Amino acid sequence: MIMRTEVPRRLTVLGSTGSIGTNTLDVVRQLGGRDAFEIMALTGNGNIELLAEQARKFGARLAVTADENRYAALKDALCGSGIAVAAGMSGLDEAAGLDADWVMAAIVGTAGLAPTLRAARRGANIALANKECLVSAGELFLDAVGTGGGQLIPVDSEHSAIFQCLDRNQRHALERIILTASGGPFRAYTREQMAGVTLQAARSHPNWSMGLKISVGSATMFNKAFEMIEAKHLFGVRPEQIEVVVHPQSVIHSMVGYVDGSVIAQLGVPDMRTAIGYALSYPDRSALDVERIDFSKLARLDFEAPDEARFPALRLARTALERGGLQGAVLNGAEEAAFAAFVAERIGFLGMAEVVEAVMDQLTDIGPAGEIADVVQADVEARRRAREVVGRMAAA
Ligand code: NAD
Ligand code: MG
Asked: What are the angstrom distances between the C-alpha of 152 and each of 5, 120, 123, 128, 264?
């Protein structure tokens, strides 16, 4: 069990300007702001105005933009504030290395891996939104957390739900975990309909308001694919113990089934602040001003089996889980490149899964992950091959 840290808790938010980052700072405000948290570092990328505003408001010691070209703009924006400024990979590393008890890992994509690893290795408690750390670098990331000795608390709503439902004294009696999926905006579409959808349609999630990447990932269900791999690592379960069920209302955030047939679920309105507040308050719970479920108004909760023919991402996750090793890094790297090609309108919506599958099949004999450099190499190679496949598809 975690040692209670002193109040105020020292917190760094990697990716403070994003959807999870801004929700995190709203939770910080709700939990007492500067009386409850000492903000060590905030990091962003392009949105300098918001980053500077956050840094001033929360009295951060350090503000970092990942974009070196924006260093001067950030410096200007924070002129006279006494807040230190840094940029680029080294800036992110500096932010992760500051002595914060808690680090919210909320950068999107593989860009979050290096700073989150750094924070884990030095023993910070990690509130993990950046699931790509576990998808790409699973065992190595868990090793880093183990070496550092901090806690790893999931922020992804499904994994927060499972974490909350797990009876730690009965791990031997855990039979299955059931990840719920909304099914995204195209849940009821045929493959023919999906073939022609626009980015605008793909990013419009029916229940959750999220960043662009994860919104599109919900539409393809690659987000759920990542979450299956994330669950394997977080909860130490075998692939066949991980089930996915489509639950369009997103009220049940996920469930845990035990050997006696009991299923324990965690419910809430679709608002990431609950999972964020839980992670930042762990092992306590703090009062949050989020909407409550009104059961008298909940007309129904629906469930359906996911259709892997229309959503091949789920099948690809099973393949990656079976192959193990660096296949997670390949899946993740290829998907990020395929997503970028879809955003750039070089391939269609269904093309994303085709690219990922083609790259995974090219790299079946990629070895196990011995060190982080192997993960980085697999990621780079997967992206390179994904761009080749995209090039061939775009030319056809
Ligand atoms: P977002 O796009 O809204 O925000 C991403 C953050 O990362 C921003 O602060 C941005 O400045 C920063 N960033 C972007 N590119 C960067 C780079 N190259 N280097 C360093 N920083 C960079 O994303 P989000 O929706 O907040 O998602 C963040 C993470 O949380 C993702 O891993 C996502 O899968 C996960 N997650 C998000 C939600 C959600 O509700 N948004 C839910 C569950 C999990
Ligand atoms: Mg999720």
From this structure: 15, 9, 10, 7, 22
pLDDT tens-digit readout, 181-225: 999 999 999 999 999 999 999 999 888 889 999 999 999 999 999
Going from the Cα of 43 to the center of ligand 1, the distance in angstroms, rounded, reads 11
Q: Which atom of ligand 1 is nearest to the CA of 131?
A: 32
Q: Is residue 347 marked as binding? A: no
Residues facing 128 on adjacent strands = 105, 154
CB half-sphere exposure, 22, CA atoms < 13 A:
11
Residue 393 Cα to ligand 2 midpoint, Å, equals 30
pTM given for the model = 0.97
Q: What is the 8-class DSSP label of residue 259?
A: T
> Which two structure tokens, joined as six digits, stand for 21?
């980052």
DSSP string, 117-174: HHHHHTT-EEEE--THHHHHHHHHHHHHHHHHT--EEE-SHHHHHHHHH--GGGGGGE
46-to-61, 80, 154 alpha-carbon distances in Å: 20, 21, 26
CB of 332 closer than 8 Å to CB of 247: no
Q: Are 376 and 114 in contact (CB under 8 A)?
A: no
Alpha-carbon distance of 382 to 362, in angstroms, equals 9
Q: Would you say 223 is a known binding-site residue? A: yes
Residues with CB under 6 A from ligand 1: 15-21, 44-45, 66, 106-108, 111, 129-132, 156, 208, 210-214, 272
85-132 pLDDT per residue, tens: 999 999 999 999 999 999 999 999 999 999 999 999 999 999 999 999
